[in-house]
Write a structure and sequence with these properties.
The protein is built from four helices and three strands, in the order αββααβα. The protein is mainly alpha-helical. α2 runs antiparallel to α3.
Length: 179
């Protein structure tokens, strides 16, 4: 049983790496297309009054916060990415955690995708504009992070029990009180 859990864990970690690379490719390719076709152009409506493609160079963090704080944003991003990778490796090999692997991989890919832009360009390329509610312009990487974070939130709140998340506890069992 333990060997099968370890095997599943290794398979999921390989799946994580492949998923992250695939999502990174999609994000970077979409940004490449945005620069190629949208930079210097008028917004292109996809659904009139609802959704359009519009080029923006975001020099801040999420929603333009921390404008021109590249070093700080990169530092926080790297620390957060390391935390997520650590958490990914700490996940047990049981299949009930596979969906967490998927969500964490998406968050990592989104974070790395935007960090690549910051390192390479000094800003993040955004191009999706949800104009119906005047929402800030975003990109594929942002979508990965938001959707996966919402999914993780719902899993932790409504699906997993406290016992399912005990692997997150850094205390060793031998020092715990037993009731």
């Amino acid at each position: 049983m333990k060997k099968s859990l370890m095997s599943n864990r290794k398979k999921m970690l390989i799946f994580d790496v492949i998923g992250i690379i695939l999502l990174l490719f999609i994000d970077q390719y979409a940004k490449y297309l945005a620069v190629l076709h949208l930079k210097g152009q008028e917004a292109i409506p996809l659904i009139q009054g609802v959704l359009e493609l519009q080029y923006l160079e975001n020099r801040g963090a999420a929603f333009g916060l921390l404008l021109d704080q590249k070093v700080f944003i990169l530092f926080v991003g790297i620390v957060f990415q390391l935390f997520l990778v650590f958490f990914l490796f700490k996940l047990p090999g049981h299949k009930k955690y596979n969906v967490i692997h998927v969500f964490l991989s998406a968050i990592i890919a989104g974070g790395v995708g935007n960090m690549i832009d910051r390192f390479r360009l000094g800003y993040v390329v955004d191009f999706i504009s949800f104009v119906l509610i005047d929402f800030p312009i975003f990109n594929a990487a942002d979508t990965y992070v938001v959707v996966a974070s919402i999914g993780l939130f719902f899993l932790v709140i409504f699906v997993y029990k406290e016992k399912d998340l005990e692997f997150l506890n850094f205390k060793q069992n031998r020092y715990r009180e037993t009731k």
